[in-house]
Amino acid sequence: METSLHRQLKEHYAGDASLQEVACAGYRIDAIRRGRLFEIQHGSLAAIRDKITALLVEHKVTVVKPIIATKQLINHAKKNGPEISRRLSPKRGKLLDLFDELVYFTRVFPHKRLTLEVALVEVEELRYPGHGRRRRRRERDFQIADQRLLGIVETHKFRTLADLRRLLPSSLPTTFHTGHLSKAMQISRSDAQRIAYCLRETGGIRMVGKEGNAILYRHSRRAA
Known about the structure:
By secondary structure, the chain is of the alpha+beta class. It contains 6 helices and 9 strands; from the N terminus they run αβββαββαββαααββ. Residues 3-159 form the DUF8091 domain. Pfam families: DUF8091 (PF26351).
């Protein structure tokens, strides 16, 4: 079932209701504006990889990837029941979360007709008890009734490899490995490896050797 969040984002990008849920090239498209197709993807980018690849043959496409920056949790006594509590979720989404999904999209991005737009959003999530379906972790024993958009904090557009590579810190040495990346960005080594994988597979950086067991990288001229 479509969430209010998805519907609100469609309205934001299309404006006119007649430009939402449009049929194009055998697919249903979330929105269209000035000849550009907009696809809003809350879930994995892997789910729309083939669809976007097919659309890019003849159309300009913007894939909007919402990342929840802040979330207000609103608990109800039951489905459609009265509100009993609300609190701010401790989880915070960030721009670098894009790489969690980009690992499934490296064969599509970059493309001359594709724009990947990250929207950092504030939402409220309506929940109600899940009736013991998750007994081992009762603090998570709930069902999500809906998610609603409270506001768009900021957006970031990626069209080229250079756009993507700008997320790397300028303090990186000319030749670097994921240990350098982890330290410079203050992230875990596994997150740094994920970022390096995405940049390598899209052509933003290239492998130039090894230092012990660590792969060494340099910026690719293709992304300059």
